[in-house]
Specification:
Largest sheet: none
Order of helices and strands: HH
Number of helices: 2
Radius of gyration: 60 Å
Structural class: mainly alpha
Strand content: under 5%
Length: 156
């Protein structure tokens, strides 16, 4: 055999192999590679989208936390104001009750002082009558001289 024929036949077989590979083997491989590349690209897009959504969600969470903190601070301030108002109202009520108790005590003291004065007047009147009785050396009848004794009590 001739070397040129061998090279020519090998070139023809190689061309048939290249044609067969390009026609039947290469398209499914390229299709599989393209599909794989598309899946990877879709996965990367989804990852980027998820990353941006995560950033947005984190931003919303931070805003909601800040809002919740603000509301909590406001509620605490309101609660403190209400507590102060309740304490002030209780102080006012306590002062009113104290004033009522003091007024009642003063009235009771006045009544007791009046009773003591009346008792003292009666005792002084009784002493005056006894003194007058001893001075006059006779008995003074209280029922007979009631008007005179009443005037004496009022004068004392």
């Amino acid at each position: 055999m001739n070397i040129n024929a061998t090279l020519f036949l090998q070139a023809i077989v190689f061309a048939i192999l290249v044609w067969f590979t390009m026609r039947f083997i290469w398209p499914p491989i390229t299709k599989a590679l393209d599909e794989r590349a598309q899946k990877i690209a879709d996965g990367l897009k989804a990852a980027d989208l998820a990353k941006s959504e995560l950033a947005t969600a984190n931003k919303k969470v931070d805003e909601q936390l800040a809002q919740a903190r603000g509301e909590t601070t406001k509620q605490l301030a309101d609660a403190e104001k209400r507590a102060a108002a309740i304490v002030d109202a209780a102080k006012v009520r306590a002062e009113e009750e104290g004033a009522k108790i003091v007024a009642a005590a003063k009235a009771e003291a006045e009544q007791q002082a009046m009773r003591a004065r009346e008792a003292l007047r009666e005792q002084v009147a009784a002493l005056a009558v006894k003194g007058a009785e001893q001075i006059l050396q006779r008995e003074v009848n209280a029922s007979v001289h009631a008007e005179l004794l009443g005037r004496l009590k009022t004068e004392l």
